[in-house]
Amino acid sequence: MADIFEKLVKDGGPIGQHMKRAHGYFAFPKLEGELGSRMFFRGKERIVWSLNNYLGLANHPETRKADTIAAEKWGMGYPMGARMMSGNSIYHEELEKVLSQFVKREDAMLLNFGYQGIMSCIDALVNRRDIIVYDAECHACIVDGIRMHLGYSYTYKHNDVEDCEKQLQRATKMAEKTGGGILLITEGVYGMSGDQGKLKEIVALKEKYEFRILIDDAHGFGAMGPTGAGADEAQGCQAGIDLYFSTFVKSMGSIGAFIAGPKDVLAYLRYNTRSQIFAKSLPMLIVEGMLKRMEMLKTMPELREKLWHVTNTLQNGLRERGFDLGKTNTMVTPVYMKGDVPEATAMVLDLRENYNIFCSIVVYPVIPKGQIIYRLIPTAAHTDEDIQLTLQAFTETKAKLDAGEYKVAEIPDMAEAM
Prior knowledge:
CATH superfamily of the largest domain: Type I PLP-dependent aspartate aminotransferase-like (Major domain)
Number of helices: 16
Helix content: 40-55%
Order of helices and strands: HHHEEEHHEHEHEHEHEHEEHHHHEHEEEH
Largest sheet: 7 strands, mixed
Distance between the termini: 38 Å
CATH architecture of the largest domain: 3-Layer(aba) Sandwich
Structural class: alpha/beta
Number of strands: 14
Shape: globular
Strand order of the largest sheet: 4-10-9-8-7-5-6
């Protein structure tokens, strides 16, 4: 009989295998100072491209003021208890009304967290007779929600509408046997690659197959579309998306989430979404802060305009310099390069220590061996100077990468203990 802990500490897992060298620098770094495009890391100011703060609301003077007033008024504890029991308020219901109207749905329900929220919604929406069809690159929260599903699930190749139709055909045949229905799950904006889900094309498949659509638009809400209502607004297919989910942690600079859709379905979810029924209500501090953020989203289009100015300037500059940004057509800016894990980490070290550029890096096992992705997140808080310094840094470090200057035997030891 094995000790259950033994397998956990043997090698640290696929990502944690490098933790002894990486912790505190490449993994779990500590950014300090005021939230913004420039923060401090290990005592030095860096240009930060790793914050999902698209509209710059996390530290905007108006949101800071609203958050401070709400904190003084309510504290962190109010209301106490789950929404169903003792944690409901007129402010929670007001925010739900504002959200549902903004995304053009009949109703909306607040969720305490994005990750557990969508997992629990998936769990509530389907039973063992139902079939789930989903994109192969859906976020881990969706995958984990599907893991809880006791029925059949079929995955289709990322943004491959032809393969999606094949899986819908399989799902339809299975649903005829089980007597269940079909839920298709995709994303509005894919947070790693930056491309949008093929929402309009998938909605068109409803003419041939009977299914419902749930989209996770965590990265699209607030940034995509003429009003910021999301990727489905950008693609002109809001009416065909049955359930719309998003978090408050990207464009809104807060925490929490919501799901919106038909009134009768939302009524069911309120009484059957376990992560909300058995958890404390979203604190009033967050609710009032979100009401202010929604007001700003609707009345300050200059925030989105600034975001897209930064996005287009950065992405155009990178492409002009020969960088591969893949298929991104959103704010998310992946920079694809060739190299191994030690090379990638050596390049990150150079970028941070010698160019003062802080961005996230993605390597194997998250992506295939031999590839490196630098993931840059433009925000309305970045300046033109930030962009130009970053373009110069990437140009020079790519030349070093191509010349083999980052070839090292192993990951440099930059652990927190140093």
